[in-house]
Amino acid sequence: MSGRSRLQVLRWVVLALAAAFFLVPLLAMLDFSTRTPTGGRSGEDWAALLDSPPLVRAILASVQLAALTAVAVIALLLPTMLLVTLRLPWARRTVELLCLLPLAVPAIVVVVGIAPVYAWVTYLLGGSSLTLVFAYVVLALPFAHRALDAGLRSIDVLTLVEAARSLGARWPTVLLRVLLPNLRGAVLSAAFLTVALVLGEFTFASLLSYDTLPVAINAVGKRDAGVSVAASLASLLVAFVLLLALSLLPGPGERARRRGRLRPSPTFRSPR
Amino acid sequence: MRRAGAGRAGLLAAAGLLPFAAVVVLFLLIPTVVVVVGALSDDGRPSLSGLTAFGDPTVLRAFARSTWLSASTAAIGAVVGALVAYAVATGAPDGVLRRVVTSACGVLAQFGGVTLAFAFIATLGVSGVVTLWLRDALGVDVFANGVWLFDMPGLVLVYTFFQVPLMVIVFLPALDGVRPQWREATVTLGGSTWQYWRHVGGPLLAPAFGGSALLLFANAMSAYATAAALVSQGAPIVPLQIRAALTSEVLLGRADLGQTLALGMVVVVVAVMVAQALLQRRTSRWVAGSAR
Amino acid sequence: MRRSTLRAAAALGAGAVLLATAACAPPEREQDAASSDAAAATSAEDLGGMDALVEAAEAEGELNVIALPPDWANYGAIIEAFEAEYDITVNSDQPDAASQDEIDTAKRLAGGDRAPDVFDLGQAVALANTDMFAPYQVATWDTIPDAFKEPTGLWVNDYGGNMSIGYDSAKVPAPTAVADLLEPEYRGAVALNGDPTQAGAAFAGVVMASLGSGGSADDLAPGVELFRQLKAAGNFLPVDPTPATIASGQTPVVIDWDYLNAAQTAQLPTWEVVVPAGAVTASYYHQAINADAPHPAAARLWQEFLFSDEGQNLWLAGGARPVRAEAMVEAGTIDEEAWSALPAVEGEPVLLTPEQSDAGAQQLASTWAQAVS
Known about the structure:
Largest sheet of chain A: none
Structural class of chain A: mainly alpha
Strand content of chain B: under 5%
CATH superfamily of the largest domain in chain B: MetI-like
CATH topology of chain A: MetI-like fold
Number of domains of chain B: 2
Oligomer: heterotrimer
Distance between the termini of chain A: 13 Å
CATH class of the largest domain in chain B: Mainly Alpha
CATH superfamily of chain A: MetI-like
């Protein structure tokens, strides 16, 4: 069993080192935002965040946008990738390339080309910041595709689908009750990345003059350096809490499983 | 398995790609086409004169630095991220540690720009918290040979801050798919841990690892807000040169150059993707029971 | 399989090209009679006097401004004062935008409700884009010197300042000349606000360094040489100075406009500003109205407000020199306290002509990157 405990030690060493590397800069930000000129500590800059109505509006807009984008990306990408895996293998490379393209061109250049399209979108759908969902779906494609692809490679999609179909399941059942529970980790990863992307995306929203959370934080921060650092840390914390809440959501079928009505999902994982 | 493209079923399947195709064409391909057209035209007429920009040594050096920066941060991020992901994946699948780490990584993967730059300046700047501590407590002057934080080595360090969490998030689902049966089978046949990773685990995880590393590469190539805040002089990498060409208020009229450079970036990313695909094809000899 | 991939890619690409070439703009939004009246007005009299202008502007209810950070020449207070005086909401977009970004945004959002109504631009961008401006002569037009305005009112200089050295007196000794920055006390301390081939402020910083090192408005090589020496000595930081880096002490010396440096004293009491003797370079910004403004009356009212005594004094309070300063000193309407608080200037300020700016920019384009990398 020494191999096992060696693994445990290694795990915790890796995690501790990683935690140190990532927490130190964040702590430095916290230090700066709570500093007073006389060398003491104060929560002034943090309190200043709370009395700002534009910020509250922007938070609501961004959270709505994040939820909308996450749902839209998964609803768009998952069936497409399943279709490609099962029926159209020749399209796989194309989809992969298309899903990597948004990262190949920097946002400031894409905005130049997307402006005429957005002129139409604004004309047809109004000027609310929720219309950013289209651009954000495209921006989230690389990350969502990678997460879903990893998940799809790790389960035996063809066998599961054929087994379910041969037992008489229709496509919605196959998708929702057979595939989705097995892809829960991948779908959750894709959703995480999308939500974090939307809550942190600044360039598009700013250049197209929409009022989302990162834009509002930037505007608030212009008044005071400490407030701007506090605002960024606060938005990180808010996103963290949101994602944590998302990860606590039971996946489809899990509620039923917990009630003991279904047997464990086909890919049974024993502890390593 | 029906042959792809055969008959009505094939057409129906292809039609299922329409929503994806519509979104991609409208919001991704049109902007890309505008960029390509802008790069290959001169005042509205098609011309290759824009491509002479690639002969400029400053531009070539910027491309070299960008590629080097992206490749190194992708490599470091991929390896370190895979290790952290492994540390998480071998724990309880629904435990607190996994939830906290994945949420934190999700947030940090998209953290960048001026704030990230400031966080590192406050930590490792000339009078940063860690710099001062190292100097006072350990007598080590990190900047004895020049301030490297505001140059390429600094960029590598700062980019790692969002590359590693990104790798953790995208690689974790792949690690979740590693079956204990594979390990058991290897042990039963008398293989060691090294042999397991070299012949079984490694090749099976290689496509996902390679794809994730490619994502990291592309992510680093297009990141510019962080670099803009740290290295605001001299535009050493391509995204900064693009920004300079598009938004300079001193040297005007270089928007075409910006689009030409963007075209160059697309070419580099596509080339790396093709290379990675070719490499993958060579190294994946067998795959355990999945339809590819 | 590869052929099919290529076919798929080609089909998508063709679709995109077709759509892109057919990507005409959506139909223009309807402009009502009142708006088009305001859009054609070249002075308040055209609309029937100031009161009529105020009425038309308040009917529009909103004003879109761009690239106006609150701590830039006191724009925060100016926007607040404008909103308090008139029933108009000011939407301040993209505070970090550069001059070229303002023009690009106006083109990008043209025809929509969120396009910027007014511009505040650096010299080069303003002179290159006069076809986007609407001519307008404010009520105080005659008190603005001729050299600071375009004859028909396409653009007017609004405020300006001198290039200065801001420093934290608690951390570094006070510099009196640009060459002082080469001293070892300034190791890892000196930052320039932007890249001179991109930002007007940084360009003027190189001009100041040039003037202080024996160069002139026509020859910026000594300035570039000074920065090369700063870099070699380890004194030069390539980082972008922000209020956060100044307040945290990471950039103890910043070369920037005097009004921008002056604003930092509010958050760092030991921050001081000095304009080096004999190396004085000044520049004025250009105010213009977007010809395609979604709120033309509000845009013109904003112009009137900025060039009124109140607006000019608010700029002065931010440490900038308002363009009507001389006329206001004569008329006695200037804010005496703020006027005397401006940093002392020894020597005649050098203002670059567009030709000199252009030549200097070309010179920097070929020499700057090598000097500081």
